[in-house]
Predict the structure.
Amino acid sequence: MNKFLLGTLALATALTTTAQTQKRAFEVKDVYRVQYASGPTVSAKGQLAYTVSGSILSRQKSFMNIVVDGKTVTNDSLSASPQWSEDGKKLYYTSYKNGTAQLYVLENGVSTQLTDYALGVQSAIVSPNGRYVAFAAQVDPLTDGTDGKAQLAALTAKQKNPLQAHLTDSLFLRHWTEYNDGRYWHILVYDLQTKKYTDLTPGRYDSPVFSPNGPSGFVFSPDSKEICYLSNHDRHPEASTNCDLWVVPVTGGETRCLTADNKAWDGSPQYSPDGRWIAYRFQRTPGYESDRFILGLINRKTGEKRVLTEQFDNWVDDFQWSADSKQIYFLGEVRGEEPLYAVDLAKGHIRPVIAGKAISGFCADGKGGFYYSYSTTGKPSALYHADKKGRETQVTHLNDQLEAEVDMRPSETMWVMGAKGDSVEVFIVKPHNFDPSKKYPLIVNVHGGPQMQWMNSFRADWQVYPGAGYVVAYPNPHGSTGYGQAFCRAISGDWGGSPYEDVIAVTNKLAELNYVDSTRMGAMGWSYGGYFMNWLQGQPHRFKCLASMMGVFNLRAMWGTTEELWFPNFELGGQPWNSKLYDKWSPNMYVKNYRTPTLIITGERDYRVSYNQSLEYFTILQTLGIPSRLIVFDNDGHWPSNLKSMPLYYNAHLEWFHKYLGGAPAPWKSEDMVKNGDFFKD
């Protein structure tokens, strides 16, 4: 190599290094500059449509628009969920531009509203023949479900009633953040020819069942004659995971259950393009919401069932049929990633299609390739394309300017020997302007679920805290998905056992790293992670401070106030009066050991883990004279509002960690944020 080339390379390296060091640290405001591309879908003509979304903190607004082949085709900032007609000439989408979610069609550059249901249409889909629109709506069975105006009038009357109360004769009175008040999710069909609505699932059942991401789990058959959907008809749905697949004619009538033989969960139906099969995900263990999700088939003619992914010892997530009905593509959680796989129907062979990535959405391009979204810890989500030879091209560049300005920190992986001799994977993110000769404070973040996994994907908190000068670590202890179902199930009945051993082992290993200041270590967690912080409080640990969000404190009380009873019933081996695990693993039983300063955050509308759990915890800490701070979000549930509450969430953590661990100060004063919302203005 000649001297000129060597010099050129040296100069290029120097310039790159300088550019990197000139990037500023990631700040809380940067969370709201990130844009996302999601829901890719390709037409019969090869056109690519997707949704671009994001937030504007200073305006307290979110936005979402439809993009087709790189051109924005909606400008209302309130449109999402594109879907093509069979011939590719029409683009359907959902928009809130007139106040409620309604379905629109874009054809020849002209947008037309198709539905006018007064309550709005949730998760709307169009039949293959283009005649019907199916959607979900939460209706009162005592009022005609097809009459949206009557449903809205009944709901409005209750809201305006000077007597505000809730009355019920059965459980499941409330769910996540809302009181049901006798209303149920139903599937309605709108006939675009007759302009009439039909309630396909009348009665006192949720059909489809509720999902935090919106009601889902219903789909048209290829011939547009029936709909397959998800519903739980058990007498006590609050204590049962026995959701089944049902079919009903698109014009209404008798329903038929397809999976009555399985007393566990069945869902996510998808018809094969040739109409022969219904693919679906199922679990085998009744009452266990974190059992392995397996991909199966139902022969529509015979009712015979087949298992496709028995040998895949991890969860199957989103899946799609190939156009020829010979393969199914699916995403699977594997060791901090979510690769794309294909399973062959004839032989059952599973092969990786796109490996080494945490993919969040995908679709085939019709030419043997795929469009998909993914991110890494240090790079926000973008849309990519891989051709049939695997050559990848980035399609969207929504965050290029942000990435050029801000130091997005990547993650590294470390494996630590944990409980039972099992290896535990840990993601480590080093701080802005990292200098290996210096020592930095450490934050260990324990995930919720507890059955989920940290992945090598972009998360705001994985950037906010390194931007403030912290090393952050994200372990996947026993109970995490992606490491085989035995590892996942190991946490059931052992909440404070193996996971505690894992996290302590991880912390001890991290404390040995040359760049970690072992005298300045803190921990944080949300949901089960919040429980874990409360558990740590009463157990030997090395943390100078803790931060507990939406965490369980008193397991006995939690059982009586949560809405999905199947969860504690399974995880803790029964009810409080017949299982000793409620006392064994309850943080409130170890008050005598409490000593660590703790930040506590909760939501008053959290019906999963009642905010009273946090109030009880805070009361005890204050009584014991242990430094503590409580934040209660009035209008939030198990997760704070992204725009209205999360800025305070991040700020409060930065304040707390700065006080006890010595990282950078928070951008605002939390007390001022609570008193005056002008903090976010430009």
Observations:
- The longest strand covers residues 516-526.
- The mean pLDDT is 94.
- Residues 407-665 form a domain with the Rossmann fold fold (CATH 3.40.50.1820).
